[in-house]
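Forum: Protein Structure Q&A
Topic: Joint prediction for protein chains with partners

I've read a bunch of threads here and the consensus seems to be that you should model interacting components together rather than docking separate models afterwards. I'd like to see that in practice. Below is the full input, 617 residues plus whatever partners are listed. Could one of the regulars post the assembled result?
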Amino acid sequence: MDRIWAEVLRPAQLTGAGRPIFHPNEIECQLVDGVEMQLETVPNAPSFRNVVVILTTHRIVCVDENSKNAGAIALGAVCRVFPPKKTLKSMFVASRMRIQLWTKNGSVADGANSATESAIVLVMIFRGQTSSDSFISKLGEVIEAKAWEADIKNVRVVAQQSIAGGPAGNSHSVRGPADQLGSVPLVRKLNPAMAGVSGILRKEKEQLDEADKNLQEAFSDLNALMSKAKEMVSLAERMRIKLLAAPSQQMSAADDEEMGKQEMQDWLLSVGIVSPVTKESAGALYHQQLARQLADFVKVPLQKSGGMLAMVDVYCLFNRARGTELISPEDLLQACTIWASIDVPVAMRRFDSGVVVIQSKSHNDEEVSMRLEILVKQPDAMRQGISATDAARALGLAPALAKEHLLAAEMRGQLCRDDGADGLRFFLNILVQVDITKAFQ
Amino acid sequence: MDQFKMPYFYNYPPYFTLQPVKDTRDKQVQLWKELILKYCKNYKIFIINLDEEFPLFVNSSIERKLSHEARELFLGALVTEGKAEWLDKGHRKCLILWRTITDWANLILHFVKENGFEDGVMTLDEIRTGDETRGTDIAGIDRTVLIKALRVLEQRGKAAMFKGTSADDEGVKFSA
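Posted by a regular:
Agreed with the consensus. Here's the joint model:
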C-alpha cells in the first residue's frame, strides 16, 4: 500500500486466511471485487488497484488479497456519497462512485463534529465482475442505520452498570470502541433499587426475564430468529461465562453434572460465527470468501482432533456455528476446492477409498505413521493385530479416518493385514523384512 | 523322516491372508513358494490335491488357513517358475518338483553307475520301492516324476523304457 493510502485508511487486521477481523457487533453486508480506489483531492496520488471491498455495518474494509494488505474507512467519517450517474455512457465504462470524507487537521476523522471539515474525496471505480448497484444501495442503508453509534451508546450503558454494582454483562462489547471513549463523562449514580442483596436478586430476575423474552421472540418466527441471531450468540456467550464461574462456587456438584456442564460449554462455544458469509452479501465472491471464513473456522476443531477432520463433521460443525445461514454440502465442497488456489493453512484431501477430509497443512502422515508403528509393536498387537477401532482410540480420531490411516500405512508397506474371523486387523509388516535365505533352518 | 520345523512367520496371521499391496504380496508369495518346496521335500510329497486339506495350508494353533484363491496363486507361482506342474486343466492337482526333472535324471544315472546297473534292467516299481534303492534319495519317487526323468535319460541315449503286459511290469533298460 502506498504511503498516501496508509494515511487515508485506518489499518485493518486480517485473519490467517485473509478475511478481515471484525469488531464485536460488526456484521459484513456486501462484498465487491476488482475495485480501484483513487484520491480525487490529492493530485497525482497513486491509485490503490484491484482491491476487494467489504462493506460492514461499521466500516468499509479494503483488502488487497495478493499482498494481504488491508485498510478501512470508518463509516462515521463518511460525509457524503455521490452515486454513479445513470447515463447511457455508464453502460459501457466502469461505474465510479465518489465518497466525501470528514477530515480533521488534514487527516480522516472518526465522525462529524465542529472541528471537522470535508476535504478528502475518494473515488471507487468498479472494474470487477460484481455489480456495484447492490453495494451502493447497501452503503446507503448502513450509513442510515448508524450501527456504530448504537455501539458507542451500549458501551456507555455497560460502563454505568458496572459502576452501579451490576454484573459486567456483555463483556466483549466493552473492548475496542471503549478505548476511544475515555473522555465520556460517567455519572456515578447510586440507584436505591439496585443496592443490597434484594437489588442483586432483582437484577438477576430482570436478566432472566430478558433472556426469556429474547428466546420467545427469537423462536416466534424465522425472520425474527435471523434478526435475533446476534443476541443469541451473545446470550450463549454469557451463559458460557456463567457456567465457567459456577463450578468454583459449587464444588460439591456431582461428577456427571460437571461433565454435562463441560459439554454445554462446548456447545455454546460452537454457536459462534457472528457474521457469516452469505450468498446475498458476497455475490460472485461467495465461494472464495466462504473458503477463507471456513479456513479460519476449522483451525480450532482441527487442533482438537489431531489435525484431521472428516468432511461430514466439518459440514456439521460449520453449519452449527453459522446458525441460520446454513450452507449446502455443494457450497462446502466448492469452498474447499478453492483452498488449493489461495494461501490458507488448511487443505482438502481425498483418500484412495474416496473418503474426503480436511487437514491442516502442518499435519503430516509421518507423525501418524510413527504412532501407528509404536501401536503395532506392542506385544499384544504383534499377536492379535489392531483393528480400526483400536487405532481410532489410540490416535483420537474417528474410526473411518483411523482406517484410512491404516490403509495408507499398508500401502506404504508398513503394515499388513489379516482378514480372519475377527474382521480386518492390521499387523506390523514383518513379511517384507524376512530374510529368505535364513528363514528356513 | 524328521519333523519339519516351521519358520517363525508361519504363526503370524497375516501370512495366511492374501496381501493386497503388491510389494508385500510379492514377498508373501516368495515365502510361501519356498515353504511349500521345503515342506514337500522334507516329507517327500509329490502331489498336492487342492480338493483335499493339505496340512501345510492350515494352521490350527492360530486358527487360520489359506483361502482357495491363495493356494492356487502360490502353486501357480511355482508352476510359472518351473518348480511345479498342473496335472489337470482344472488346476486341482499339482505336481511339486522340489527337485527338477533333470536333477532326478542325474540322480538316477548316478545310482545306476554306483550300483553296477549300467547294462541292467529294472522295473519301475523296483526303482521306487525295491531293495536296491532303499535308503537312497530315489526311494519313494513318484511314478509320474520317475517316468519324466527316465524320458530325459532316453533322450540322452542312456536308457530305454519298455512296456510289459501290465502296468506292474513296465521296465527300463539302462545303457550308461
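Chain B has five helices and eight strands.
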